[in-house]
Amino acid sequence: MTLTGQLLIGQQTLTGDRDVIHGINPATNSPLQPAYAGGSAEHVEQACALAWAALDRYRETSLEARAEFIETIAGEIEALGDELIDRALAETGLPRPRLLGERGRTCQQLRLFARTVRAGEWLDVRVDTAQPQRQPMPRSDLRQRQIPLGPVAVFGASNFPLAFSVAGGDTASALAAGCPVIVKAHGAHPGTSELVGRAVARAVKACALPDGVFSLLYGSGREVGVALVSDPRIKAVGFTGSRSGGLALIKAAQARPEPIPVYAEMSSINPVLLFPAALQNRAEALAQGFVASLTLGAGQFCTNPGLVIAHKGPALDAFIGATTELIQRSPAQTMLTPGIFNAYESSVNALAENARARIAAVGQRATDPNQGQAHVFVTDAADFLADHTLQAEAFGAASVIVQCASDAEIRQVLEQLEGQLTATLHLDDEDLQQARALLPTLERKAGRLLVNGWPTGVEVCDAMVHGGPFPATSDSRTTSVGTAAILRFLRPVCYQDFPDSLLPTALKHANPLSLRRLLDGQRETAKNAE
Ligand code: NAP
């Protein structure tokens, strides 16, 4: 397919009239064709008008029709074949196997949401039937279902050009909820975005859905992004990226006459606790697992293990020694963009210059542009507690090991941490009591707690939580990965004393969708009618 560099506004392709961006091959710093001219406020206006016009029809599509649409998107993405992988490879520097895996994950994610849509549990139907004889007052017939919030603005992430970009988790969950989506493509991979955007637009057409169900815009976040978030027809935002970008969009959303939710995933250092017996019994194996997780994908994962916490002593020294050897052998890796590489360099330089931390290990030298070297730093709990900058996210393969003198210090370090996506516990049987004592703190701090694993590698499934207290996300009640992500884009509506003929299909007395409703306080097990 020939890339055109054009905006996709519904089924229309338009050329932007703002500054041009090119995809950049980070391995060579060379620009890629074509040029992508940014959209303007007028393009945002057109996309929002179309999305608004599509809303009422799209949100009342049958469960089957909506599920088929989402599956059609997955099929269209797969049909792009190698062209998609080749372009993503050129734009991101990510290795081919990683991109093949990410495409698989993206399509599996879409199909999982199709399954979720079909099952209809997300409608969360609740029925309290009328009690005309109730004393002293009769009870009305009350029925609740979830409806979509309205058009959603999605900001594609730089570090997942497929799974968290144009047809990634935010888009899939919003479309599943019944919300039209307008994506602001990430400037790091415009060609990949165009290919996927066109695949989604083809699915919209093939399924005979209204044009405005999907649009794709390019351009500066400060113009297109803020205009999108400020448009009164946009009712929610999905974002993955930097803390400053997320906060800017939250501010714009809150400054509107009608504020809207922004589901922003921003910054997390994912603490890993090494408990004494585990450290004593397998320091070397822990170091191997740690370095593999830390250096995976040049460390450009939101779940990267950026902080290790353990008791000071010979066992931790052994872990640091083994880690140092492995890090020193680890090759420098191409990062996603020159901007992300520069931000990583600034972060590790700041840590290197910080008198409260020392460098334990640095990876092999870079041989090509934009290659990040892995870094591990060591500090003491007292220093960590005294300097908040030691817990700033260094997006890349950098981690800080905090040596603690006592259980009390470990608890203090944990209590002082900001909100996290994950917290990991490495423990053996002898450590269980100590781990149990820390669980209430860890639950308050993180969205996902892991035992004897590593936080990178987020399963897309029903039980996943990829969220957590600020600044991991802007709303700790939700997840951006897994089927529960659909709940971000829904709100309840109650229908009181509606005649059956006027009720939405999901709420009708005969339960034509065979939903498992909460009927007069009992969760239905069989697919029955009233
Ligand atoms: P970013 O700079 O936050 O950009 C993400 C998106 O938000 C882009 O589309 C960007 O538009 C837009 N944006 C940024 N600032 C904005 C503002 N003030 N107003 C409106 N829109 C704005 O993130 P990035 O480019 O992916 O990476 C930069 C840094 O983000 C990394 O170095 C890392 O620290 C962090 N990061 C964290 C995670 C995580 O999961 N924790 C993931 C990725 C990145 P433009 O195209 O105009 O910039």
UniProtKB/TrEMBL annotation:
Residues 20-460 form the Aldehyde dehydrogenase domain. The keyword Oxidoreductase applies. Keywords: Oxidoreductase. Pfam families: Aldedh. InterPro entries: Ald_DH/histidinol_DH (IPR016161), Ald_DH_C (IPR016163), Ald_DH_N (IPR016162), Aldehyde_DH_dom (IPR015590), Aldehyde_DH_Superfamily (IPR050740), ALDH_KGSADH (IPR044151). The keyword ATP-binding does not apply. This is Aldehyde dehydrogenase (NADP(+)). The lineage of its organism: Bacteria, Pseudomonadati, Pseudomonadota, Gammaproteobacteria, Pseudomonadales.
